[in-house]
Amino acid sequence: MKQIERSNKKGPLKMTKTDLLEFLMKGRAFLALIIVIVVFASMAPGFLSIGNIIIISKHVAIIALMAVGMTFVILSGGIDLSVGSIVGLTAMIAGGLINEGIRLGIFGVVLFPNVWMVIVLTLISGIIIGAVNGLVITRLKVYPFIATLGMLYAARGMAGLRNNGRTFANLVGKEQFNNMGFEQLGAGTLL
Questions:
Q1: H or E element that contains 160
Q2: Residue 174 to residue 181: CA distance in whole angstroms
Q3: Which own/partner pairs from 184-189 qualify as long-range (CB within 8 Å, at least 24 positions apart)?
């Protein structure tokens, strides 16, 4: 094999074609990202503008957060197919808490939690759903693929039933109920 020589502070470094191919194979996702950025930057002059980078960051944020959690699941040898549906269900719960509040029918009262309480209640609901997944997998010995596939459909169905298949278009809240400010968190204007 033909060798490629580079010099560094410690002396010459010999890299074979095989080493170069292995390096390119390990970095293929990063290389693909660079190619995509170069192509889109050449097609649209404003692609690398600060405003566009902020918009892309806002759209990627939720996927990145889910990917961080999924990384730990995959590293431990498991799989979770229900992550996206659970996020959708918890989003519907948050929207319901902001727009409709918590109805206490026996008392004839509707409670409207403030934004931070909505966040806490939504996180708790996501933790409970994840705990159900974990218990089904560990205690009932159901394979993770099957258990999370079932939860995917259950969470998706509950999210659809929560609001008859519609989304919550207005998440501003109401000033008289002191539950305003969620749109600033959801729009990414905080920090």
A1: helix 144-162
A2: 10
A3: 185/115, 185/119, 187/58, 188/54, 188/57, 188/58, 188/61
DSSP 4: E
Q: Who wins on pLDDT, 61 or 154?
A: 154
**Can you tell me the distance from the alpha carbon of 165 to that of 157, in angstroms, rounded to the nearest whole number?**
9
Tokens for 12, please give them: 């010459």
Q: How far apart are CA 23 and CA 16, in angstroms?
A: 11
DSSP character at residue 165: T
Q: Phi and psi for 110 in degrees, rounded to 5?
A: -120, 120
The closest of 56, 108, 84 to 159, measured between CA atoms, is 84
| Residue reference for tokens 């649209």 | 44
Of 61, 60, 122, the residue nearest 91 (C-alpha): 122
Candidates 104, 122, 117; CA nearest to 168 is 122
Asked if pLDDT for residue 1 goes beyond 50, the answer is no
Q: d(Cα 65, Cα 87) in Å, to the nearest integer?
A: 11
pLDDT band at residue 191, thresholds of 50, 70 and 90?
Answer: low
Alpha-helical runs (H) found in 9-139? 17-26, 28-43, 50-75, 83-99, 115-138
> Are residues 72 and 115 in contact, defined by beta-carbon separation less than 8 angstroms?
no
